[in-house]
Amino acid sequence: MKKEYRDNVEIILVSPSEPGNIGGTARAMNNMGFSHLGLVTPVDYKIPETYKFAWNSHEIVDNAKVYDSIPSAIKDKGYVVAMSTRKGRDRGRFEVLNDVVPEIHELAAKTKVAVIFGCESWGLTNDDLLHANRVVRIHTADKFPSLNLSQAVLVTCYELFNSKAKIDRDRLEPASREALELCFTHIEKVLAMIGYGDRGDRLLPKNIIKSVKKLVGRAILDPHEVAMLRGMCSQVEKTIEGFKLRKDKQDGIEK
After folding, report:
1. Is 73 a residue whose pLDDT tops 80?
2. What is the DSSP string of the chain?
3. Which of 251 and 24 is assigned the larger pLDDT?
4. Contact 75/177 with Cβ under 8 angstroms?
5. How, if at all, do strands 79-83 and 113-117 pair?
6. Percent of the chain with pLDDT over 90
């Protein structure tokens, strides 16, 4: 993996609670040529323990970006990978790291990429996973699949370091996560306008949005495709507003 590809990859730890794991992550990244570390609501980490584990990698710790939420960490990213081992009915489709690294490699040449790891105690929540294009697990022994946080980062960075991109020259740069979130909000607004969920199921629109996020995430839409979706939503809005206006006029005539 060429250096310029690695420069577009940010390793993001969500709510890390052990300073040693932050330091170990920095060292693992440095071993494989990655330098961009992001921390979402981390523990106080600028202490000796962190630097002890970040041997010869202090610069990565010092330059780490700190965020207050996952959305703020990924808003400028065009491709987001969530690393997780915890399965469940509502956690969506999991893919194996080895199968996804060529795509990460390819897209890192065109856009900013985030690879997200959850905290040591509970990993990433179901809602956290909705921010990702891919939910990925590291293939390990079934008897004991859980890896230490910095170990998981090392394995992931190693696979990326040794990967080869599947080049699709027709693929455009993906839309940013911020643009996607605005699109999801637009879709949710239109669903509310047409009364979706008015049959007594208040959770229905939220569940639909979750499914839309998973679907769109897997599709990796480009800016033109996102604009097209929003254009469709806008046309639905205009049609509904026109219908309401005509109905209001008709009601006025009848009165």
Report:
1. yes
2. --HHHHTTEEEEEES---HHHHHHHHHHHHHTT--EEEEES-----SHHHHHHSTT-HHHHHT-EEESSHHHHHTT-SEEEEE-----TTS--EEEHHHHHHHHHHHHTTS-EEEEE-BTTTB--HHHHTT-SEEEE----TTS----HHHHHHHHHHHHHT------TTPPPPPPHHHHHHHHHHHHHHHHHTTTTTTS-TTHHHHHHHHHHHHHHHHT--HHHHHHHHHHHHHHHHHHHHHHHHHHHHHHHH-
3. 24
4. yes
5. parallel
6. 54
Q: How far is residue 235's CA from residue 241's CA, in Å, rounded to a whole number?
A: 10
**Contact by Cβ (8 Å): 78, 176:** yes
201 pLDDT band, cuts 50/70/90, is: low
Q: What is the β-pairing status of strands 79-83 and 94-96?
A: unpaired
pLDDT classification of 245: cutoffs 50, 70, 90: confident
Q: For residue 118, give both structure tokens.
A: 């959850």
Q: What is the dihedral of CA 75, 76, 79, 85, to 10 degrees?
A: -40
Q: How many CA atoms lie within 13 A of 8 on its CB side?
A: 20
Q: What's the pTM value of the predicted model, to 2 decimals?
A: 0.77
Mean pLDDT of the chain: 87
What pairing do the DSSP bridges indicate for beta strands 65-67 and 9-14?
A: unpaired
31 or 205: which carries more pLDDT confidence? Answer: 31
d(CA 61, CA 146): 25
